[in-house]
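Lab notebook, bench 4. Still working through the backlog of constructs that have no structural model yet. Next entry is a single chain of 76 residues. Request: give me the structure tokens for it.
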Amino acid sequence: MRAMVLDKPKQSLQLRDLPKPKPGRGQLLVRVATCAVCRTDLHVVDGELPDPKLPLILGHQIVGRVQEIGEETDSK
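Model written out:
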């Protein structure tokens, strides 16, 4: 998968090809069509929040389609 990754606050995001994740128990894998970032993500980029878990793929406000369903996930 392709993702914009933050390695260090106050630096540009880096475009990377990463391994496709596998959904775990009770999870879904979503193919993202569109993604947005919230103000909290921008605070992380700007170095205004302490101790972010890096490297970080920003954005959790997405539009996409379910590609795969993990075990014990209700598909209804």
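Notes after review: The chain has a mean pLDDT of 93. DSSP finds one helix and five strands in the chain. Flag for follow-up if needed.
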